[in-house]
Specification:
Largest sheet: none
Low-confidence stretches: none
Shape: extended
Number of helices: 4
Mean pLDDT: 86
Distance between the termini: 100 Å
Radius of gyration: 25 Å
Helix content: 25-40%
Strand content: under 5%
Length: 92
Amino acid sequence: MTATATKSKERSVDHDATPPAQDLAELVHYTPEEVEANRWLPFTARTLRNKANAREIPHSALGGRITFRLAHIREIAAMGDTRPFSKPPKSA
């Protein structure tokens, strides 16, 4: 019986490659206090927590802590946008 040697396959991994900074910024989680301190939204930290617990606003709740990513903050800000009424056509 002859044994055959197996060659290990080496995978080329580029350890120096990092995602662009803007992609990393989207992954950062901010506490309600940080959102309030930076005045990114017109709510207090307590209001943000209450709205998140009531599922009125998007948020993350990993590990039992309420946090907000930039995408959440943008979406909450957009929730307050209003559009002008379209003018009805004038009757002849």
